[in-house]
Amino acid sequence: MVNVILISHGAFCQGLLQSLKMVAGEDFGVKAVSLNEGEAPEEFRVKLAEAIKENHTDSEQETIILSDIPGGTPFQSAAYLAKQYKIGLISGMNLPMLLTLCFEKSRDKSLEELVNKVTSEGSLGVQAKLFKEGEKSKREKLSVDKNR
């Protein structure tokens, strides 16, 4: 089975993991490793390597790492560790992407299949809508007060 690790600058990855638990009811074995303020890149790399090793029970074990932004210290650290481990590295993580990954990984898909699925347009969860002032369109009320 493919393991999942979230990495980010600060507590973003831990917050995303908490959101996963809130929405899906469980954590699916996902781990979060954050780069803390003032932490040296080498220290972070050691923490990340330990999280990867915890999941690697054999040489065939694979890990998908979701990162906050490309090119940052967390991303670069994961890329460096790809020399030693089978890693799929994806930047721009978000909750729809993580949910897709967790539900799909339980179906015993390969690392390559999961990376392709998670980075497909339908899994990215990005939508844009522009609402003009005074626009009257059909959308649900956000208020729980039905008398408004």
TrEMBL record:
A GO biological process this protein is involved in? phosphoenolpyruvate-dependent sugar phosphotransferase system
Designated name of the protein: PTS EIIA type-4 domain-containing protein
Native source organism of the sequence: Oceanobacillus sojae
| Gene Ontology CC terms | cytoplasm; membrane
Could you tell me the keywords of this UniProt record?
Cytoplasm, Kinase, Phosphotransferase system, Sugar transport, Transferase, Transport
Specify the superkingdom: Bacteria
Q: Which Pfam families match?
A: EIIA-man
Where do the PTS EIIA type-4 domain residues begin and end? 1-126
